[in-house]
Amino acid sequence: MVSIIRYLFLILLFNVCCERENLVSPDTFVKMISHRNLGLAYLEEERFSDAVKEFKALIDLHPQEPLGYANLGLAYMLMSGELKNSEEWLSQALKKSPNNPDILFLQSKLYELTDRKDKAIINLENLIIKHPTHVRSLYQLGIIYSRDHSEDKNQEAIKYISRVCEEVPGNIAASLKLIELLIENKNGEDALYQLQNLIQTLPKLSDASTKIIMKITSLLHENKIEESRIPMIMLHNLLKPIDIYQSSISKLRGTSGPIAGSPLFHFLNTKTKDKENHFEKNVTFKNISEKVKLNLINDKINSSSEDRSNSLIFALADHDLDGDVDLYVSSNSIRNKLSRQFFLENRAGKFFNQSSLANIEHSGFDISAKFSDYDNDGYQDLFICNSSGDKLYRNMNNGKYVEQKNTGINTTSISQSALFLDLDLEGDLDLFLATESANRYFRNNSDGTFSDMSKQFGIENDEIKSIRISFSDFDDDGDVDLFVLNENGTFYLYDNLRQGRFENISKKSGLRGFDSPYEALICDYNNDGLEDIFIADNKKYFLFKNLGELKFELDIIWGSLKNNSEVIPYGGPAKFADVNNDGYEDLILSGFVESKKSSVVFLFYNDGNGSFSSSQLIIDDFSHLINQIEINDYDNDGDLDLFFSTLNNEIHLYENVGGNINNYIKIELTGLRTGSGKNNYFGIGSKLELKAGEIYQMKYVDEPSIHFGIGNKDSADVIRTVWSNGVPQNRFKPQKNQKIVEKQVLKGSCPYLFGWSGKKFDFITDVLWPSALGMPLGIMAGELSYAFPNSTDEYLMLPGEKLKPFNNSYLLQFTTELWETPYLDKIRLMVIDHPRDIDIFIDETFYPPPFPKFRVYHIKEKHAPIKAEDSNGINLLKKISKKDNDYVSNLYSDLYQGVTKFHELILEFDNLNTEDSLFLFLQGWLFPTDASINVNLSQIDSLKSIFPYLQIPDQNGNWKTINNNMGFPKGKNKTMIVDLTNKFVDDDFRIKIRTNMQIYWDRAFIGSPLNKSEMFKSELVPTYANLHYRGFSSTEQKDYSSPHIPDYYSVKKGQKWRDLIGKYTRYGDVLELLMESDNKYVIMNAGDEITLKFDTSNLTDLPNDWDRDFLFYNDGWLKDGDLNTAKGKTVMPLPFHGMESYPKGAENKYPSDREYDFYREKYNTRLITTKNFRNFIRHMDDE
Q1: In what order do the strands lie in the sheet with 641-646?
Q2: 829-850, pLDDT tens digit by residue?
Q3: Quick check: 900 and 996 in contact, CB under 8 A?
Q4: Fewest CB within a 10 Å sphere: which of 169, 377, 1063, 1179?
Q5: Tens of pLDDT, residues 374-390
Q6: Which pTM value belongs to this model?
Q7: Nearest to 610 by CA among 541, 550, 555
Q8: Distances in Å between the alpha carbon of 1134 and those of 336, 887, 1080?
Q9: Which residues of 755-784 are buried (b: 16+ CB within 10 A; e: fewer)?
Q10: CA distance readout (Å), 501 to 506, 788, 930, 1146
């Protein structure tokens, strides 16, 4: 036994020693980097023999470093007849690093290639025990098991591919494979759920693909699982050739080549003795323009140009979603004011001229170009500022672009620069144009047109030529602001006031004017969480540090740059970019240096403490001035490369060599394209925060892919996305290439009510639904109208099984968990005892005031429908016959959350002539719109939210509307009651309910309320009310048509939402505030809970065959933090009973006398700001 323990100890010691970092000299480290770089380049070019030589040379320099061995193993694996050598080198790599998942994956792949499948499976399963999020291994296991079509292997395949979909949501290849497997396994419910999730994340597909998807969805809705199998295979085969599918499969396999796996980029066991890490400041850039065939387009441009006074502008985008960057290039003749347009498509790293197919051709002089997805179809369109009028080309997803006419984008002066951004915060991308005179703001109408709203939004300015537009949330208040640089040295700083208003605060910002500016950059150069402003003037550079609250100061000690054109360049474009992946943004400057008689590009390294102290000349061989620089990871190798154009009509690409010696994270956002509408597809304008150990970084999304360097960290700890609509979403331990898909959550709706059911607290219902302070409803006479200001004054049904006494009290928990502030004024609990053969109901329909008179309905006999179907004749009787949380689910999403394609519920009942009165009872739930969606809908004529309306047949059998607004359920699992007495004609007892609201029906019946019934009512006042912090419940959704139900016992603490600022009710006893509707209420913040008790000692025992149910009365108001909610930033103004409107009718009108002042001084003393939200990620894990 002792010898075994000694043996195990020696193995452990060996593994630790093998994996510890070894110090090498700086000179050796530089040589290792050189061999690594060459070896990786040769692998990319499939020069495997040359790669072998480089990696062997690396091993000779440092035999303890696993990278050389692992990459040798991969190189031999890719060579013909060298699998034995591959296995030997991989074995050596694993001796140096036994637990590295990428090396273990390569070894597993080798086992597959040598017909050792069982060994490959064992290896992969052991790998994911230690590395449970290793996507390549999870996917490979899923694929291996899926090839064996037995039931148990199919279940294993589903398990692993499901985990892949959790790690890389929105990956089309993984999602389609999972749906296929679920259908094969006869699991139609989960297949439908996955398909509906996929539909929301996909860009717009071809008509043929869309038609098949609709067919599969319909079949799964009807539970025709076997019939859906063939269409699903057809869909999968139809999508496999498209670019986005091929890109997604490459991400799962680590390569687009025939053998899955990728090389190691980062040294595992090596560290330099150079404490300053000077190697990180020795990144080189290599001109690869000829290699990628850009020289051919340069030759084509210049061979046909007689005018040598030319310039060239370009724009970058992955226009076909294949995972690499394509180019739009415009060659301009300055003398003739004409342009020639070229479109270059990236194919396997080389650019090919596809201009004739792209069909981008126009007259005039192109000034600038910008790709952006203006129509939110998932493909980037092209906007061009042109001397003869701006051009908008729509990407048709087939290589072609079509110029859009009659868009409403008209200016009286020539545009210089364009910015697409959701400036009115309602989900789509608006357009801001910097022009030669007055700048213009065009609101996106979401129908392909734009409206000039410059005056209404407060951004009309003097007729001054503007040259640059930038954005950021400079004051970090949750909405994007604007910075506009003018040619004459002036500028505009616009604060976003929300609700479509901006304020020019330039004079009080601390920024100053300039002489001859030509560049403005926005960047958080010191990683303090606030973006700063960099200005390039002809002979000077300015860096303004953001102090917060829209205040800036000139940073005079930010670097060692000297104001001497012989030392550093001036007059050319500049960029911030973390070129060495150390987690700090470096500065690239360009210009013409007289002493060199050439254009140069300098790189100034950010030293991490707010200064740029080391510089490096990276380009100095161009005689013409550089006029544009763009940064992009062109080769997807994890470091940022450099595109630039010159005034002699040439475009060049310089490859970053060595920047990926440090690690990186690449983030792509995907907003839900259908059934949401809250964020644009690529998440433009969203805020990303990253924490990786001690490194904190923050960036705003201005393009589809955002790059973060993370130094020597293996991964980031967390990425927080604050979407452009203000909703935060955390991703812990993100993948290296991480797509973050928007989660469809309610950011505001209502507080939750939990009750003690005898053993635990169960969710019962959501409350305060009738109130929506400041909620925009639509545009009336050119101005937004807002929801009514009335308090809730509502009763809600609490089923008896949900509430049982505990120590002579009924216990309720009233929780606030969404982005909202309740003002809870009064509560009661009504106890209703009744005979067991009689059920009681109340109407829980949302109506505008005046609210209908409260009534309790006593129902003994329920008439269930004998037939139920939708407009397509699909049988819904099983879904609608009983209350079982099995909802009518065949709803099809439209653009927005809460709005679907029109759906119908057609019910038929047997003879009802025997009843004196007839009432329809409908039970179900609503997934609502929100404030921002309402604003967007108010701007669209073609789409409106239509309340449910009810029809019955007339004497001729034609449907006739008898109730054009039935209202809708007040949230989760509510009952609607509609009076149908004397409505039916003859003996035709059919009903049609039609709407496009996202309502899921659970049960329908007709009942005749009893006029008299035995019933005992008891009203209980609360005896205990304690306000305290609790946190946020996790939620579960059974399927796509079910509501999200919170779990009281699964709670996350900490900061979740950007709180509404102001004074809240202090924690502790709040009982006296809930006794009367007297404007002295409890003000709650997100995460708060009130524990409520109601004394049961005076209640009588229930007679035999009687039941006890409850009604919960609440009176108060609710205001959410939506960016378009009026006064949604603050608790103020306080609401009160009798106010005529909100917010206008409540401003400075809350009762003010000794009694109310005393209430506020005693209770409302808990000051809440946004500080905790703003610093939550930055200070995570700080000591």
Answers
A1: 284-287, 650-657, 641-646, 626-632
A2: 999 999 999 999 999 999 888 8
A3: yes
A4: 1179
A5: 999 999 999 999 999 99
A6: 0.94
A7: 555
A8: 63, 39, 10
A9: bbbeeebbbbbbbbbbbbbbbbbeeeeeeb
A10: 16, 23, 20, 21
